[in-house]
Amino acid sequence: MTKKLLAMIAVAALATGATTSSASATNAGASAKLPPKGARAVVEVSPNPTAKRGEKLTITGHCGGGTGLKAVIGGIQDKSILEEVRILDDNPKRFKATATLRSTIGNGVGPIFVNCGGEMGVTLLVTHV
């Protein structure tokens, strides 16, 4: 299970970097590369950075070719930073979910992953509590 999670993190991290690079390249007029298959979902968290423990977060994005939002995961392994995760709209073109920041969270940075049925996405949530 740990190897699979680490592989998902690596793919998602590559996708995040590739998405940023491709956006910059497109703006510069150069040919842009797409993120690798399996890592094309895009995710955003609001508010980010967050300022309060127990704060309600909104997770939005698109599935980049995936079938629809299946899961939202915050943190790594047993160190979850989210609770009460609710998928409000699983639309692959514009999904929406909510979650609450765990009350035991401290200052730092943690990953927020989305599983979009064939495509993964990741962003980082910064906490200042």
Strand order of the largest sheet: 1-2-6-5
Number of helices: 1
Given as residue ranges, the uncertain stretches (5+ residues, pLDDT < 50) are: 14-30
The share of residues in extended strands comes to 35-45%
Mean pLDDT: 82
Number of strands: 8
Overall body shape: globular
Multimeric state: single chain
- Termini separation (Å)? 31 Å
Structural class: alpha+beta
- Rounded Rg: 15 Å
| Amount of helix | 10-25%
Summarize the SSE layout with pairings:
Elements: H1 2-28, E1 42-46, E2 56-62, E3 71-76, E4 79-80, E5 82-89, E6 95-101, E7 108-115, E8 120-127
Antiparallel strand pairs: 1-2, 2-6, 3-4, 3-7, 5-6, 7-8
Any overview of this molecule?
The protein is 21% helix and 40% strand. It has 129 residues and is of the alpha+beta class. Mean pLDDT is 82; it is low at 14-30.
Give a short overview.
This protein is of the alpha+beta class and 129 residues long.
What key phrases describe this protein's structure?
129 residues; alpha+beta; four-stranded antiparallel sheet; 8 strands
